[in-house]
């Protein structure tokens, strides 16, 4: 399960980076429960505009393959033609998981910069939400706005 966990988050973050670099209006990714949780948090934080379900049974001329199944269409956010997030940093990876306790999280909240997403026993939370419910977890992603 750990390989799936990190590949979903890693693929989502990588696609977001490439989408923002190429100034795309939207990107399309495979949909699953974990990616939807991550995208919900990114919408709440203003990193992406919104996302919607996308079903397709069409062949892509660019990739020379046919897409089947459930996908999610992610609409990216721009202000005056510039991307809202300036940097994405994937913090944990399969070979190195980084965990943060509630006490360390409290100190981070004093000097915070950007958005820190954490995987906890209550789902994916931002650092502020985790401090409010007094829980720590695995560091996932840091987004600089």
Structural descriptors:
Dna Ligase, domain 1, alpha+beta, 145 residues, globular, single chain, 4 helices, 5-stranded antiparallel sheet, 3-stranded antiparallel sheet, 33% helix
Short description, anyone?
This protein is of the alpha+beta class. The chain has helices at residues 2-21, 33-45, 102-110, 127-132, and strands at residues 26-30, 48-55, 59-60, 65-66, 70-76, 78-79, 82-83, 87-90, 99-100, 115-120, 123-126, 137-144.
Structural overview:
There is one protein chain. This protein is of the alpha+beta class. It has one domain (2-144): Dna Ligase, domain 1 (2-Layer Sandwich). The protein has helices spanning 2-21, 33-45, 102-110, 127-132; strands spanning 26-30, 48-55, 59-60, 65-66, 70-76, 78-79, 82-83, 87-90, 99-100, 115-120, 123-126, 137-144. Strands 8, 9, 10, 11 and 12 form a five-stranded antiparallel sheet that branches. Strands 1-5-2 form a three-stranded antiparallel sheet, with helices on one face. A hairpin with a 4-residue loop joins β3 (59-60) and β4 (65-66). The longest helix is centred in the N-terminal third of the chain and has 20 residues, at 2-21. It is globular. The model has no long low-confidence stretch (mean pLDDT 87).
């Amino acid at each position: 399960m750990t390989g799936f966990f990190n590949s979903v988050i890693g693929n989502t973050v990588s696609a977001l980076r490439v989408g923002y670099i190429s100034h795309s209006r939207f990107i399309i990714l495979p949909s699953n429960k974990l990616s939807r949780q991550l995208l919900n948090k990114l919408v709440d934080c203003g990193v992406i505009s919104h996302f919607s379900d996308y079903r397709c049974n069409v062949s892509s001329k660019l990739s020379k393959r046919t897409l089947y199944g459930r996908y999610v269409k992610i609409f990216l956010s721009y202000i005056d033609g510039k991307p809202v997030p300036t940097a994405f940093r994937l913090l944990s990876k399969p070979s190195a998981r980084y965990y943060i306790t509630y006490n360390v999280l409290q100190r981070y909240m004093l000097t915070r910069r950007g958005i820190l997403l954490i995987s906890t026993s209550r789902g994916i939370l931002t650092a502020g939400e985790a401090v409010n419910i007094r829980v720590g977890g695995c560091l996932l992603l840091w987004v600089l706005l």
